[in-house]
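Action item from last week, closing it out:
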Amino acid sequence: MAMSAKKVNKNSQPEIISVGRSGSWQWHSWFVFLIGTLLYANTLTHEFTQDDAIVIYDNMYTTQGVSGLKGLFTKDTFFGFFKEEGKAKLVSGGRYRPLTPAMFALEYQLVGKNPLLGHLINILLYGFLCFVIYRLLALLICHKDDSESKRLLILAIALIYAAHPLHTEAVANIKGRDEIMSMLGAVAALYYIIKYADFGLKKYVVLACVSFFAAFLAKENAITFLAVVPMSLYFFRGKNIMESAVAAAPLLIPTILFILIRASILGNDFGGTPMELMNNPYLKIVGNQYVPFDAGEKMATIIFTLGKYVQLLFFPHPLTHDYYPRHIDIMSFGDVGVLMSMLLYAGIIFLIYKGWKSRNIASFGAAFYIVTLSIVSNIVFPIGTNMSERFMFMPSLGFAIVLGYGIHQFIYQRMGKQAFLVVLGIWIGLFGLKTVTRNMVWESDFKLFTTDVKTSTNSAKILNAAGGSLTDKAYKETDEGKKKQMLEEALGYLNQAIEIHPTYKNAYLIMGNAYYYLNNYDAAITAYGNALKIDPDFKDAFTNQAISLREAGKFAGEKQNDLIKAETYLVRAYQMNPNDAETTRLLGVLNGVKGNHTEALNFFTKVVAIEPSNAGAHLNLSNAARNAGDVLKAETHLRKALELDPEIANKQR
């Protein structure tokens, strides 16, 4: 008996295999989660590092815990650190990323200034992200054919992503959670849009919009998924471009909502081009002043860094958190590295073109890489630095797709499952080993800065940071020999930083501090003076120069017995800070020694006005008054000194 043809209902859903819920493959997603978490387990004992101060322990809103949430959601992300209008927009356009600072505020409410919880949450969130990426890949690739071959492919992709060493900056640094949360929200939005396309349930649209909005609140990079989502529908659901765009259109709702909120808080001013090298790497010195690169130099330098990203994706060594000027030098189109990068990206674009019509997985991975890279490429808008490893957090998934597909095609399809697992195991093992060892460098600022300065040897920023870290540690060092050695090493780094960036005021400030701790007051005064020439309103340099002048005067008077030199320094210090009690006291002593008793009396009178509860100040005033012939005043302040400190008479002897 012949079987009759079955009528197909045009309104019925396409046949889709349920993936990721049961069967022999379910353990894969949990294995990926385990790898993602275990690779970062050694960060649990780490300190706060790098930019954690800006968004966590030095942020006035975060440290208020729950009460600071309003400030975090209604101000620029950097405002709570700088505490001044305008400074928060040092990076062009400002930053509105309140989600992760809000998480940090809740953690601060629970445990205070303790990094353990922050590191633990980062590790778990990263593991969960890797888990979701596996489930997304399964949904995309295995929706009609849930075979062993495809499952091994997506396992390879997810493991390459989970183990990649370029992710250490985002996971090992607590502040890097904005990368994790933005990626997690964007990936979840894509997952739910695909589910909606498959099953037509409106709840998936709602979940997609909520996830996407959360991704935006973490970091603006999520906007690239407005292209990734329709592209995914095109490649994996057979829709044409228009159908894909319509299916992804609901994501415009959270996008527009975020843009409106951001504009209401930060305004529509995206800022001009900063003329400070640490905020704009495309500057060079011409005639003792900074001017922008010409168009060729800028584009060549950008193209070179794009090639550097690909090199680090394949061979992530050496790694550094700092790619500031001039770690990446001024490039031209005659440089071999630039030409190689151009050829490399021509190849990537050809890969996209070649596989676009056939909807090839490698073509999708290459397109994913280019789309998510675009926003951090310095081509769309300036990002404030040449490049950064954390900027690969999203694009590296595209790389993982291409690499995983390549291993699958050339090893699994030709040599079989065993050879495929061996090659994949070696690759993941090497990536994992690099990740674990790189994590160790993120243990503390001191270790991070003094390690990476050996890689980023021409970065003014890391040279300054290493100099500052060594100077801070030297201040606490009790062994004078070690202290001197650390300070001299710091000065070496700081001099290099200034050679690269002659108007680096912070480097001059730290240099002044290092010289001060070496008791080289003249050099300290000069360094602070150089900082003030660059920025006359630099408060820290002004304050520290006044202190150095005071200590130089004290040293000249007490150790060198040079009253003329001492007076020169002390008068300058007094002119800078006439309300400093110690400077005023020293001028009183100096004038007393010189026999200028009336002047001495005036200075000691001012010291008492500044510190009325200081017994020593009253005693000095009593002696000065006696020397000036004012016995009544002398007795009055002697009684006051004894009243404040009954042992003052013994101390006088």
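Closing note: Strands lie at 283-286, 289-292.
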